[in-house]
């Protein structure tokens, strides 16, 4: 029996013109499925090569029963190499493989670099949709890496923002990021020199930094009543007492929050400051209607998402379905 699979490179995927609204819808749908127990999810594992500390790989595995007629399983490998900008490369590059969960037959291989960027932004947006104040006006964003653009533009599409403040460690990076944002939004965008400036009186605070060692960029004192906070940098950039002022702490998946050696709240989990008992909910419980999200305007709510494999599978399936309809990509003979 001859088996073919579809290979989709970055250009193939770009040509499909899948919009932000479609991405957010797909992510919100699979988050709800996770809340209903309709997914099989395994926490990520890490491969850290002997490369002098320049980066590592994340391996993500997941299955979504609600996709198509048979469900879809998938595995993504994504590199996280901070110094890549010195070589003109993205810091995160990824490949996704999709499989038939009933036979193990491979269905597709996809460049998942864009998937990684937009699914992260969409998860931030879905969390904000349910947990931020609807009238949020000021967004403070630290970090200008690939996922940052999707974070900001998707949040901008959902909220009546009056100002977007962005910063990053390198001045040329934050200025270029601000300029890129101004090309796609009418919301005023301001590049600032420090995280403190970005977060001053902000309604939504996103920490997406690229630190090499822990450093408190998102300070507890910056979180005003009613604020929505999203820290998800690989290395912690928050203070240990941050959770003390939070009315609710929400994660994407508690098992994922406990896994691996990286993550914005790794120290909080390891020291017992964040436990299953102190956690308010997983986002899927809220999106699927099991628990309420924001209940008061003055609630301080934190959402920590590490990135779920099921988001990659859901967006991979969306792209594959669209590519099949358009007959896009390259068919490869598997056997």
What does this structure look like?
InterPro entries: NAD(P)-bd_dom_sf, ODC_Mu_crystall, ODC_N. It holds the Pfam family OCD_Mu_crystall. This is Ornithine cyclodeaminase. The protein has 335 residues and is of the alpha/beta class. The protein has two domains: 4-115 and 310-333, ornithine cyclodeaminase, domain 1, CATH 3.30.1780; 120-307, NAD(P)-binding Rossmann-like Domain (Rossmann fold, 3-Layer(aba) Sandwich), CATH 3.40.50. Helix content is 31%, strand content 24%. It is built from ten helices and 15 strands. The protein has helices at 10-15, 20-35, 113-131, 146-158, 171-182, 195-199, 254-258, 266-270, 283-287, 309-326; strands at 4-8, 39-47, 56-64, 72-80, 92-99, 106-111, 138-142, 163-167, 189-191, 204-207, 228-231, 248-251, 281-282, 301-304, 330-333. The strands form two sheets. The protein has an eight-stranded parallel sheet. A seven-stranded mixed sheet has the order 2-3-4-5-6-1-15. Helix 5 (171-182) links the parallel strand 8 and strand 9 (189-191). The longest helix has 19 residues, at 113-131. It is globular, with a radius of gyration of 19 Å. The N and C termini lie close together (8 Å).
CATH architecture of the largest domain: 3-Layer(aba) Sandwich
Walk across the major sheet and give the strand order. Answer: 9-8-7-10-11-14-12-13
Q: Please give the count of helices.
A: 10
Beta fraction: 15-25%
Coarse structural class: alpha/beta
Helix content range: 25-40%
Give the overall form.
Answer: globular
Keywords:
15 strands; alpha/beta; seven-stranded mixed sheet; eight-stranded parallel sheet
């Amino acid at each position: 029996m001859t088996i073919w699979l579809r290979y989709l490179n970055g250009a193939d995927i770009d040509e499909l013109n899948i919009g932000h609204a479609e991405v957010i819808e797909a992510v919100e749908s699979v988050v709800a499925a996770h809340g209903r127990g309709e997914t099989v999810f395994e926490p990520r594992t890490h491969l850290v090569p002997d490369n002098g500390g320049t980066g590592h790989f994340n391996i993500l595995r997941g299955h979504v029963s609600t996709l198509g007629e048979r469900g879809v399983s998938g595995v993504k490998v994504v590199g996280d190499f901070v110094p890549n900008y010195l070589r003109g490369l993205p810091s995160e590059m990824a490949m996704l493989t999709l499989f038939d969960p009933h036979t193990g037959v491979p269905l597709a291989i996809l460049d998942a670099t864009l998937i990684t960027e937009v699914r992260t932004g969409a998860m931030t947006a879905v969390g904000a949709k349910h947990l931020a104040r609807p009238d949020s006006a000021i967004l403070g964003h630290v970090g200008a890496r690939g996922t940052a653009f999707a974070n900001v533009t998707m949040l901008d599409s959902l909220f009546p923002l009056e100002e977007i403040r962005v910063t990053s460690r390198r001045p040329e990076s934050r200025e270029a990021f601000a300029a890129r944002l101004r090309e796609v939004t009418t919301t005023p965008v301001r590049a600032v020199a420090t995280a403190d400036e970005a977060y001053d009186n902000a309604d939504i605070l996103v920490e997406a930094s690229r630190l090499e060692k822990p450093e408190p960029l998102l300070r507890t004192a910056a979180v005003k009543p009613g604020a929505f906070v999203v820290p998800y940098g690989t290395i912690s950039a928050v203070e240990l007492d941050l959770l003390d002022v939070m009315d609710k702490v929400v994660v994407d998946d508690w098992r994922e929050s406990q896994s691996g050696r990286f993550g914005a709240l790794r120290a909080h989990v390891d020291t017992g400051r964040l436990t299953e008992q102190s956690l308010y909910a997983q986002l899927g419980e809220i999106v699927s209607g099991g628990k309420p999200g924001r209940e008061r305007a003055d609630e301080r709510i934190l959402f920590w998402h590490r990135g779920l494999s099921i988001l990659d599978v859901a967006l991979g399936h969306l792209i594959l379905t669209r590519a099949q309809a358009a007959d896009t990509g390259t068919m490869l003979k598997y056997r």
